[in-house]
Amino acid sequence: MPWTTVQVEKLDSFFISGDFTGDRVLTYREALHEAFDQSLARDPRVFIMGEGVDDVAGVFGTTKGLKEKYGADRVFDTPIAENSLTGIAAGAAMAGLRPILIHARMDFLLLSFDQLVNHASKWCYMFGGKVKIPLVVRTISARGWGSGAQHSQCIQGMLMNVPGLKIVAPATPYDAKGLMISAIIDSNPVLFVEHRWLHKTTGHVPEELYSIPIGKGVIRRKGEDITIVAISYMLVEALKAAEKLQEAGISAEVIDPRTLKPLDEQILVESVAKTGRLLITDTGCKTGSVASEIAAVAAEKAFHLLKKPIKRVCCPDTPTPTSDVLEKAFYPNADDIFNEAVKLVRE
Amino acid sequence: MSIVMDDSKLLEMYRTMQLIRLIEQRINDEYKYDEIKTPIHLSIGQEAVAAGVCIHLRKDDYIFGTHRSHSQYIAKGGDIQKMISELYLRKTGCASGRGGSMHLVDPEVGIFGSSAIVGGSIPLGTGTALASKLQKNDRVTVVFFGDGAADEGTFHESLNFAALKKLPVVYVCENNFYAINSHQLSRQVGDNIYKWAQSYGMPGYQIDGNDVLEVFKYAEEAISRCRNGEGPTMIECLTYRWKGHIGTVDDVGEGYRPKEEYDYWVSRCPIKRFSEYLKNKGILTDELIKKIDQEIYDLIDEVFRVAQNSPKPSPDELLDFVYAD
Ligand SMILES: Cc1ncc(C[n+]2csc(CCOP(=O)(O)OP(=O)(O)O)c2C)c(N)n1
Ligand SMILES: [Mg+2]
């Protein structure tokens, strides 16, 4: 069993309510599987490729059985050549297909920057809109069980600086399915950022196909005293922190941007207008993170609304350590969010 | 070499080579006026490769090129007006002024865009070939690149993938021996890029890229292998660029390329060799040469005049095309 599975199996499953009601509850990974299954069935242009997508583990269960169902032409394993595979997927997209390329670790995405950044993301602009690249690049960040410096990175912040690339980072099963479908039907390259610790999260998910607009955030919890913007897995920690804050008499509003680029600036500004305090929490290292960008947007557009300086709760600027002791010190959690939020509100 | 081919095809290849040569020369001549405000990489001396390959391609086949891809664009039938307007960075250019000389595009004839990243378009062309296979059509992709691109990982990764999946793609290396000023032998252990292709499990050939009939023959076989589902081929075409790497400079002697080497290759001019062949066969006459040249000059005058008088993009269009709708 992959070591991150060992880790993930130890986690409590976390239920996020509010997306949708009904009695159908799925895990994040089941929701993704359903998005792939239904998209493959609906659109013959869709295909999935990546290292290990057709093996018994099926990318943590998210692609399991799809090769058997749709054939080896539409769900297939690849050589370990991340850069060229990204270009190959982009080329197939130019010719009218809708590829989904999977990197089981976000760290491996770094090998593909040439094709992702220099090519796929720029193609539409560089050729005056003549060629489109409807491509989904799905990446999964791992964490824990000694994943170490090369198997745990959350580098979405780096990619905020790439024009032409859309980035989504769903945190709930409902959003995972809806945004995957949106990414597949979009005419641009979309980076689909996942976190391994979200795979066990549960939530209501309708059976039918649906999409979620790219570029729209949601308020996960309404509040008055402080705005907490939480990205990807940090939403789970933020919601736990908000619960504790409530007990301490602080009402926190939790915002989930869902899409990192283009960012929903309106939801951010409106919330800050109400609370006057902003804490942003991201899964990546602090400098140049998505949190940095959100902070910059708030400074530009909502400076006059802020009563206190903005706070970022991120990983420190160090490679991920492997030692369990150091790992624990490295990752911020609900307590850190709680403590910083209390300082912002009370001090 | 005995090739059974009708005269019209031979003349078409001649015309294509001459079209490339004369357009490149005109670009060269106009460059000093500073109105073509984009880096250019001329293909003078290398015309036979694109001409001998693209003659076999249908409109719906795909090609990919590099920073040096005027010749391929012309040979594949890209819109020449839009190409020259693009060099002048006009709104009416093939990439609406967002691309320039290194980024030519004409999806109507299967040109999905050239890349200025060395080796960058090799995966893309491998990807359109994958699409042909998955879509079960018989469209062929040809990827053109230089000897420098064979240094890159994309070359090796892509060839492996194409062979593994038996994709309908032909890799055409225009080996002009140099990457900027760096000779192939200072970058690669051997002088046989085609052997890499063989070890990846596809036919690989090294041929005289200044002999358009030889290019024609090898390309014909490679492309028909693709159409028959027999997988990829690589053709390494030995050729030579006459101009310096970039712009209109000449870089012969003075510590750059040896004069003797340059003279040797100029003596093997692909157009001169082919026109002599055609004349000997009675297919081409001095009169016909004149007539073809005149037609080409007329076309060139027209496209340059139109390009120079076309509107530039306006600043308020800066953000257009970042995303497709
Ligand atoms: C990835 C990358 N590295 C370096 C360069 C700079 N560069 C531009 S052209 C060139 C030489 C390419 O040589 P080759 O592939 O043989 O093509 P040729 O210019 O001879 O047609 C180099 C190194 C680049 N454009 N892209
Ligand atoms: Mg070269």
Describe the fold and architecture.
Chain A has a seven-stranded mixed beta sheet, with helices on both faces. Chain A has a five-stranded mixed beta sheet with strand order 9-11-10-13-14, with helices on both faces. Chain A has a two-stranded antiparallel sheet with strand order 1-8. In chain A, helix 2 (28-42) packs parallel to helix 9 (173-185). Chain A has helices at residues 3-10, 28-42, 66-70, 82-94, 106-109, 113-120, 123-126, 156-159, 173-185, 234-247, 265-275, 290-302, 324-330, 334-346; strands at residues 25-27, 46-50, 75-76, 98-103, 136-141, 166-168, 190-195, 202-204, 218-221, 226-230, 252-256, 259-261, 278-285, 311-315. With 347 residues, chain A is an alpha/beta fold. Chain A has 14 helices and 14 strands. Chain A has two domains: 3-204, Rossmann fold; 218-346, Rossmann fold, CATH 3.40.50. Chain A starts with a helix and ends with a helix. The longest helix of chain A has 15 residues, at 28-42. In chain A, helix 10 (234-247) links the parallel strand 10 (226-230) and strand 11. Chain A is globular, with a radius of gyration of 19 Å. With 325 residues, chain B is α/β, with parallel strands linked by helices. In chain B, the strands form two sheets. A five-stranded parallel beta sheet of chain B has the order 1-2-3-7-6, with helices on both faces. In chain B, helix 1 crosses helix 2, helix 2 (47-54) runs parallel beside helix 8 and helix 5 packs parallel to helix 6. Classes of the chains: A alpha/beta (347), B alpha/beta (325). Chains A and B meet through helix 4, helix 6 and helix 7 of A and helix 5 and helix 6 of B. Magnesium ion is lined by residues 146-148, 176, 178-179 of chain B.
Key features?
heterodimer; A: 347 residues; alpha/beta; Rossmann fold; 2 domains; seven-stranded mixed beta sheet; five-stranded mixed beta sheet; 14 strands; globular; B: 325 residues; five-stranded parallel beta sheet; two-stranded antiparallel ribbon; 10% strand; binds thiamine diphosphate; binds magnesium ion
